[in-house]
Amino acid sequence: MMTDPALLRATLDKFPSLSVHVLGDVIVDLYTACDMVGTLTKQAALAVRQRGQTSYVGGAGIVAKHLAAAGATVTLTTLLGQDAAAELARTDLLAAGVHLTAVPRAPTPTKERFVIEPGGQTVLQVETWDARPLDPRRAAVLVDAVAGAVVDVVVISDFRHGIFTKATTPALLAAIPSGALKAADSQLSSRWGMILDFPGFDLLTPNEREARWALGDQDTPVGRLAPALYAQAQCRYLILTRGASGALALMPSAGAGSAPWMIDVPAYATHVVDPVGAGDALLAYAALALRVTDDLR
After folding, report:
1. How confident is the prediction along the chain (297 residues), in pLDDT tens digits per residue?
2. Beta-carbon count within 10 A of 167 CB
3. Of 183, 135, 185, 189, which is closest to residue 163 (Cα–Cα)?
4. Global pTM?
5. Which residues contact 173 (CB under 8 A, 6 or more apart)?
6. What's the CA gap between 255 and 262, in Å, rounded?
7. Measured between alpha carbons, how far is 94 from 6 in angstroms, rounded to an integer?
8. Which residues contact 155 (CB under 8 A, 6 or more apart)?
C-alpha cells in the first residue's frame, strides 16, 4: 500500500478536485447512556437509569461527511422522512458541506442503542424504519438523480433500508454515468445486504462476514474466500476487512487470466475503542485514492 510520504501528499492534494455522488441510506444513530441499576426480581429484565443521549448521522451520511472532509464536492441522494431525525440529518450534513437530495419517505431510519456506562456495553438496540419496498414513483426520482449527476466517483452505501431492492437495484446501477468510478459497500447488520448485487464495480469493501454471506460459505479459509468473491463480483479492486486481523486487498495481476494479486494488510491500530464506522471511512478514502491514482498499491 502507499507508503511514500510525497506520493501520499500529492494524492491527498488532488481530493478537492473530485466530485462525488453518494447514493445510500442515511441512518440517525442515537446513543442513550445508562447506569446499571440491577435486574428485576419479577421479570427477566435489566433495570437501568438514563443519563443522557447523543445523536449522530450515520449510514450513507457519514460516508458523505468523510468525503466532504477530504475536500471533495459531495452530493448525497437518500430517503428522509418529515421528522426530527430528518431535521437533525439535514442540519448536520449542511454544516459538513454535503449537498443533499432527499426523497421523502417516512420514517427516517434510526437506531437507538442503550449503552451501560462505564464500559460502553450496548444492552439493547431499537430500530425504526420502513420495511416495505420502495414505490415506483420514488424509485424513479432516485434513478433520475443518479443519471443526472455528472461526477468523478459514485459511491453506493447500502444498508438495505429502502433504496436497494431486487426491483430498484438494476435501474439504479444502469443510471450511473459512464466514466465515473464506482465503489460500493453493502452492510450485513440487522438487515441483509448483498455485496454481489454490485457486479463489475471498480471497488468493493465488504467485511469477512459479508463476504461469507454473499458466497454462502462459512468454512473456506479467508485466503481462498477472498479470491472467490473477487472472481464472482468481477470487480477491479476488493478490500476485504477482517477487524483486528487487518484486511486483504485484491487487484488485477499483470498477466491476462492470472490469479489476482493479493496483499495482506495488517491492522495498524493497537488500541481500538469502538470500530463502528471504520468501514465507512475506508470506503470513502479508498474510493478517492483509487480515482486519483487508478492503483490502490
Report:
1. 556 788 888 999 999 999 999 999 999 999 999 999 999 988 989 999 999 999 999 999 999 999 999 999 999 999 999 999 999 999 999 999 999 999 999 999 999 999 998 888 899 999 999 988 899 999 999 999 999 999 999 999 999 999 999 999 999 999 999 999 999 999 887 778 899 999 999 999 999 999 999 999 999 999 999 999 999 999 999 999 998 899 999 999 876 667 899 999 998 887 777 777 889 999 999 999 999 999 887
2. 12
3. 135
4. 0.93
5. 198
6. 14
7. 33
8. 20, 21, 22, 23, 24, 63, 67, 183, 184, 283, 284, 287
Beta-bridge mates of residue 207: 241
Alpha helices in 14-132 (DSSP H): 60-69, 84-95
What DSSP character marks residue 122? E
> How many whole angstroms separate alpha carbon 132 and alpha carbon 138?
13
Could you tell me the three cell numbers for 6? 510525497
Cα dihedral 135, 79, 104, 130 sign: positive
